[in-house]
Amino acid sequence: MSDVAFDTQDPMLVGLRTCLARLVDAQGRVHCRCRSRVLESSLALRLLEAEGGWAEQAARLRAYLGTAAVRADATELDRVLGLAALGRGSADTCAADVLTGFEHHSAHRKRVLLDTILYLVGAMKALPQREESAFALRGLHRWKQPEMVACRVVHAHEGERWEAVEESDLALLRKVVSGGSIYEGNNLTHLLCLSALQLLPGHGPLMDAGVARLLATLTEDGGLSLAVDMDTWTTSVVGLALAEAGARRELTDRICAWLGRRQLCDGSWSFTDGVSQTDVDTAYTGLGLLHRQDPMRYAPSLDRGHDYLERMQNADGGWPVYRHGNPSEAAMTGGALTVLTTRAARHGNRLAAGAAWLVSAQKPDGTFERGWSLAEGNAIVRAVDGLNDAVEHATLPRTLAQAARRAVGRSIAYLTASQNPDGGWGHRTGSPSDPASTGFALAALSRAADRKAVPSALAYLRGVQRPDGGFDCLADTAAPRPLVVDIPALGLAYVLRGLARSASAAGR
User: Fold this and answer.
1) 507 phi and psi, to 5 degrees?
2) Runs of H (alpha helix) within 134-230
3) Which of 142, 279, 454, 505 is the most exposed place for a label (fewest CB within 10 A)?
4) Is the dihedral of CA 508, 302, 402, 396 positive or negative?
5) In terms of Cα–Cα distance, which of 352, 319, 50, 296 is closest to 195?
6) Cα(292)–Cα(295) distance, rounded to whole angstroms?
7) Using CA atoms, how far apart are residues 70 and 40, in angstroms rounded to an integer?
8) Degrees (nearest 5) of the Cα angle 54, 59, 64?
9) Which residue from 249, 264, 279 is spatially nearest to 372, judged by alpha carbons?
10) Which residues are identified as catalytic?
């Protein structure tokens, strides 16, 4: 079924493809700094004021917060943290006030984390007493463990409950801040560990060196973000979008070569250089790109990647993000299914188990838990792709294949019904349209029988495209969930994937 005359030579698609191609450097990397964020910047300012010195950097942080905390698009958490750090806010906020509606297996841990941050910046007068189980480390990935230890130390200091802190806790904090670089590339972890150690005497030289490393990551606007960049992940996402959109072979070859050199020994990738924690998310886009580019040339990398995904599959059939045994997630499971269906004969039982879990994880309205995105469409397109691929390429039991088709149908019906009058989609039903969310929807609809929503979506995107071919995208990445981090290149890639899929569907 052809929706409109739309192909890979359409000026809108060509313009965006060219815009994204300009972000790829001579080595094949897409370098895109994370934009400054109020959360880390507020913690940093309070830390500098407690430490003394660093007057120039503190002034830059104040200037950034003075603007960012009161912008029209500032979140309630931004406003609370920024004004508190500047000494202009109240001290009566708690995590529950800013996590309303956040339903996730990590919600209890996020309340601990946010209460600690609110307390450290002066937006919360006192921390509640918590059971030791609130700071449990079992199953946590590499940077989350020291974060929880830092939270435990801050709670113990505020409540004068030092019996809850062991020397091994302090040794871990010292280890994290004493490395030659920011631990696992995560500024928030580094800040929390520094803030906890600052409450204790005897860490002067260690604090000075740790603060200096942190301040080296200040952005041009004077603020800090969660990380300097997430370039390995970003490059894999952009590369896959460019490949799907028919970019020059030389360009995607360069990207694949760069990514191939960064595959770690377990078969996956970390989000950027210098980080050891790998994840299923980057495996999905990295392996998808390498397979699409040249499955023979990259066979050894693909072999290692498939082995990794086999090891990461949980007993319930789904896939987690970081560690085997952590709760399975819809977006990760959909991505893993898409990768594994490229070798369906090898993974038959795994594909069936994954598809069954994904069908069971769907909500009655056709959506899925949003995972690491604020946009419902992100998880939907991955789930729809994974289920479609499993039905088409794997030998699923008949009843499971039927259930998978019904699940896809529910998601497509949800997207069709939630389209805004202007032709676009927002993060959630009723949210204002934004280009990235519209890209997710277009990608999901590309394999649907009914694509009547596509022409008005393309018209919406034409109306908001910039003269340089790009789009002003609303950030959707959440890290830590549900706190948004803005990596501008990602939104452009999501739009391009939607356009590329639409062009492919129009040609069928």
Assistant:
1) -85, -5
2) 144-159, 167-177, 187-198, 204-215
3) 142
4) positive
5) 50
6) 7
7) 16
8) 130
9) 279
10) 281
Is residue 149 within 8 A of residue 173, CB to CB? The reply is yes
pTM assigned to the model: 0.97
Instruction: Compute the half-sphere exposure of residue 318: CA atoms within 13 Å on the CB side of its CA.
Output: 22
154-161: list long-range contacts, CB under 8 Å, 24+ apart.
154/116, 154/119, 154/120, 154/127, 154/195, 154/196, 154/199, 155/116, 155/127, 155/130, 157/196, 157/199, 157/200, 158/119, 158/126, 158/127, 159/127, 159/129, 161/129
DSSP annotation of 446 reads T
Instruction: Classify the phi-psi angles of 56: left when phi > 0, otherwise alpha if psi is within -120 to 50, otherwise beta.
Output: alpha
Entry field: residues in the chain: 508
Which residues does 375 contact at the CB level (< 8 Å), separation at least 6?
426, 427, 428, 436, 437, 440, 476
In order, the DSSP letters of 467-484 are TTS---PPP-BBSSTTSB
DSSP per-residue codes, 49-90: HHH---HHHHHHHHHHHHHHTTSTT--HHHHHHHHHHTT-S-
Structure tokens of 182? 């920011």
Q: Which two tokens stand for residue 56?
A: 């120039």
What distance in Å separates the CA atoms of residue 199 and residue 192, rounded to the nearest whole number? 11
pLDDT tens-place values along the chain, 508 residues long? 445 679 999 999 999 999 999 999 999 999 999 999 999 999 999 999 999 999 999 999 999 999 999 999 999 999 999 999 999 988 778 767 777 666 667 788 999 999 999 999 999 999 999 999 999 999 999 999 999 999 999 999 998 888 889 999 999 999 999 989 999 999 999 999 999 999 999 999 999 999 999 999 999 999 999 999 999 999 999 999 999 999 999 999 999 999 999 999 999 999 999 999 999 999 999 999 999 999 999 999 999 999 999 999 999 999 999 999 999 999 999 999 999 999 999 999 999 999 999 999 999 999 999 999 999 999 999 999 999 999 999 889 999 999 999 999 999 999 999 999 999 999 999 999 999 999 999 999 999 998 999 999 999 999 999 999 999 999 999 999 999 999 999 999 999 999 999 999 987 7
Q: Of 72, 71, 79, which is closest to residue 97 (Cα–Cα)?
A: 79
Count H helices, E strands: the chain?
A: 21, 0
